[in-house]
From TrEMBL:
Any one cellular-component term (Gene Ontology): cell outer membrane
Location in the cell: Cell outer membrane
Name of the protein described by the UniProt record: OmpA-like domain-containing protein
Annotated ranges, domain OmpA-like: 98-215
Species of provenance: Mucilaginibacter hurinus
Signal sequence range: 1-22
């Protein structure tokens, strides 16, 4: 199954990357090794892993990782924020990954079929999410739109972009600095379920909001080592 294969690809590439980095670090302390691995798994490597796994959200988190003691410092902050979001945003699925958080909304919670206008219930969920983002200002947020495979590739790509932008516009209107937010549409290109069933297509229609440390938080984490 494709979802299993993409997970295997993710772990295989990540393990290979960490192995190469660690092999040259025998003289380093554990903290230094962790920091080196975190830095090496960032940027281009993180984007590559995310692409190979068909998972832009995971790539964004890997790409922003610092690793080591600083990464653990960031992780504790993310633990607290994830718990807060779980309590205050019941319409979302909240997942802690590495040094970040993935907040997933099924598209049916946010939008009517083939629409980009937010439902009233969706607005309440996003207002509560915005409140958490406001109380945790040392983060950057990526908003990623996804569709199922019904319709043309071009149409689905455009729909995913417009839905991600609709979420950004609403969050910005609720007091979040737009410079913290980026949007991307992935169309039908990153399914998490089988598009041949109605349930699978419903799972694939989603918006993911990825929360990672900004540069100020990374510097604070490194200073706290």
């Amino acid at each position: 199954m494709k979802t299993l294969k993409t997970k295997i690809a993710t772990y295989s590439i990540a393990i290979a990357t960490l192995g190469v980095l660690a092999s040259g670090c025998d003289s380093m302390t554990k903290t230094q090794k962790g920091a080196a691995i975190g830095a090496g798994a960032g940027g281009t490597v993180g984007a590559f892993i995310g692409k190979a796994a068909g998972n832009t959200a995971l790539g964004a988190i890997i790409g922003g990782a610092v690793g080591g003691t600083a990464g653990a410092f960031i992780g504790r902050k993310m633990d607290r924020q994830a718990a807060e979001i779980k309590q205050t945003v019941p319409g979302a699925t909240v997942t802690r990954e590495g040094e970040g958080i993935i907040v997933k909304f099924d598209s049916g919670i946010l939008f009517d079929v083939d629409k980009t206008a937010l439902k009233s219930a969706a607005q309440t969920n996003l207002e509560n999410l915005a409140a958490s983002l406001k109380s945790n200002p040392q983060t950057n947020i990526s908003i990623i739109g996804h569709t199922d495979n019904t319709g043309s590739d071009t149409y689905n790509q455009d729909l995913s972009v417009r839905r991600a932008q609709a979420v950004k516009t609403f969050i910005t209107a609720n007091g979040i600095d737009g410079s913290r937010l980026t949007t991307v549409g992935k169309g039908e290109g990153e399914p998490i379920a089988d598009n041949t069933s109605a349930d699978g297509r419903a799972q694939n229609r989603r918006v993911e909001i990825v929360i990672v440390a900004n540069e100020a938080l990374k510097q604070e984490a490194k200073a706290a080592q």
